[in-house]
Write a structure and sequence with these properties.
Number of domains: 1
Bound molecules: adenosine-5'-triphosphate, magnesium ion
Shape: globular
CATH topology: Rossmann fold
Structural class: alpha/beta
Largest sheet: 5 strands, parallel
CATH class: Alpha Beta
Number of strands: 5
Strand order of the largest sheet: 2-3-1-4-5
Order of helices and strands: EHEHHEHHEHHEH
Helix content: 40-55%
Radius of gyration: 16 Å
């Protein structure tokens, strides 16, 4: 028996309310219509253990953790997510689309909270190794518009949203810097447009870059 061809790993990144969840469900349908088996997942979370850690990260007061503790929690959740969910799926030939991944740690804990970026690179190497996304779509939207959109979903997961506007400005600039540094892996998509127009760009880029 020949092993299944390994699936592809696509991540969607961006600030609060940028349109990640909306576009992921549309991308899943598009990939399935092209014959792929698709698993959608999210970070922090995406496995039973990582979902438990998620609650510690997205609920409660903003000052609940110092930055380093928060980064370690994100990487602990990420490692469990990869082990339990992402790697087994890729090995089966399933395409995995994740709502956030390590670029969010770099943007939020690094650019947002000021943690040393090379320290985050070292943590990544220790916790994850040399695995990474085949393609990362960075959804970009002015901060005010994103926070207004995110407010429509509210619930208890408001810990990051509750941080000041200047924090979210740094996060947005951080994501754009990540894309500038890694243009082969990343593509920036302007989401200050109608949902349908954004989806056309998302699917076009996935088709061009991954031959989907
Ligand atoms: N292009 C768009 N134009 C207008 N509204 C949009 C657009 N894309 C998404 N929305 C709406 O904005 C809100 C936030 O979108 P969505 O949940 O997809 O963003 P997200 O990036 O997943 O947010 P979060 O960071 O809160 O998880 C939703 O109510 C969604 O319907
Ligand atoms: Mg979402």
């Amino acid at each position: 028996m020949t092993a299944a061809v390994r699936g592809r790993f696509i991540t969607l990144e961006g600030g609060e309310g940028a349109g990640k969840s909306t576009q992921i469900s549309r991308l899943k349908s598009w990939l399935e219509s092209h014959g792929h088996t698709v698993l959608t997942t999210r970070e922090p979370g995406g496995s039973p253990g990582a979902e438990m850690i998620r609650k510690l990260l997205v609920e409660g007061p903003a000052d609940r953790w110092d930055g380093m503790t928060e980064a370690l929690l994100h990487f602990a959740a990420r490692r469990d997510h990869l082990h339990a969910t992402v790697w087994p799926a890729l090995d089966r030939g399933t395409w995995v689309v994740s709502d956030r991944f390590a670029d969010s740690t770099r943007a939020y804990q690094g650019y947002g909270h000021g943690l040393d970026l090379s320290m985050l690179d070292r943590l990544y190497a220790i916790a994850i190794g040399d695995f990474g996304p085949d393609l990362t779509l960075i959804l970009d939207l002015p901060v005010e518009a994103g926070l207004a959109r995110a407010a429509t979903r509210r619930g208890v997961e408001t810990r990051y949203e509750s941080l000041p506007r200047t924090f979210h400005d740094r996060v947005r600039a951080g994501f754009l810097e990540i894309a500038r540094r890694e243009p082969v892996r990343c593509a920036v998509i302007d989401t200050d447009r109608e949902v349908e127009a954004v989806t056309r760009d998302v699917t076009r880029i996935v088709g061009e870059r991954l031959g989907a």
